[in-house]
Amino acid sequence: MNNAVPTTGASEHAPPNAPGLILMTADPIGGVWNYALELSRGLAPHGVRIALATMGRPLSPGQRREVADEANVTLFESGYRLEWMDDPWADVEMSGDWLLSLEAELKPDLVHLNGYVHAALPWRTPCLVVAHSCVLSWWEAVRGEQAPQRLEGYRVRVARGLAAADLVAAPSSAMLECIRRLYLPLPDAQVVYNARGRTRFRPGRKEDFILSVGRVWDEAKNIGALVRNAYDLPWPVYVAGEINQPGGGAANVDGVNRLGFLEPESLALWYTAAAIYVLPARYEPFGLTILEAALSGCALVLGDIPSLRELWDGAALFVDPESALELQKQLCALCADRNRQASLREKALERSRSFSAARMTAGYLALYARLCGTTPPEVR
């Protein structure tokens, strides 16, 4: 049984045993972006600087502003394709050379990879891999079958990276078990839950509408199930997120109020006002948008999958991701039941406090200390 890394006690001063500089990879496409910046903020009071190497696509103007606000983060941007994209391997090789050149130039104390394949590079410094998601577990959850043979090259490269890493972590026990089952046993891997800062998301006066946030075209998020039910629900539905698919085309959003992609400050206002947050996900290794909604005092309606049960059992209403009828019935009943809404909001808000930025920071400082052979600093 794997346990999450515990939080220790408190110091706001930069301890001598925290790493001075971390080379961290990230992409600006999904939740890893918010995760990386949240962790960077938590590490700043401990004197930790982050060299953030991005791949996948160019940053948006809003993302550039976010980086500029973090004094301890230096951005190194690229557009190399990511390992989970179609036919990425030439780019993955080039981005590996680029990352090694950054290591040689910057001389970090450790490397923190939010991906797998690059862990097999000949790093001079200790290497941590964080398993946020993977193609094979996505395929099983979304397609309901084992990944096809054409993804064997991906599996081999990911397994090689995991084997080469000095330490592996994951944001939920459910995700870690997927990695162990699909790639390697990894007996020493750790779970550190993700977090969002409580000052950014706050409860407020609730209004009678339903909110969902995420890539609308993504079958894993399954927001389409909510969209298909929208005309039959008593409350209006608002959806924030991209509708355009990377390969062309767009998701159907008839029946909902489309908000488009929102920057964090604007999105926080919608969370604050929404009475109910819905994400009937088929696959969600952690779910930062769910945590943001819980911090904002929304009642949660979530897909009944192992990771979300692990994190939110007893604090959310769960529905079968494959049953649009069940989703419709549960939402209609919840919209009519003010007492149940209030109870779910209270439970979600209380549970959200378990996923604090201080706890996540302490967890990663403990992992970094193991990699660097030092004693972890205390965190408040």
Automatic annotation (TrEMBL):
Keyword Transferase: yes
The protein's name in its UniProt record: Glycosyltransferase family 4 protein
UniProt cross-references to InterPro entries, sorted A to Z: Glyco_trans_4-like_N
Keywords: Transferase
Domain Glycosyltransferase subfamily 4-like N-terminal intervals: 29-194
Keyword Isomerase: no
Coiled coil ranges: none
Bilayer-crossing regions: none
Organism of derivation: Geomonas diazotrophica
Source superkingdom: Bacteria
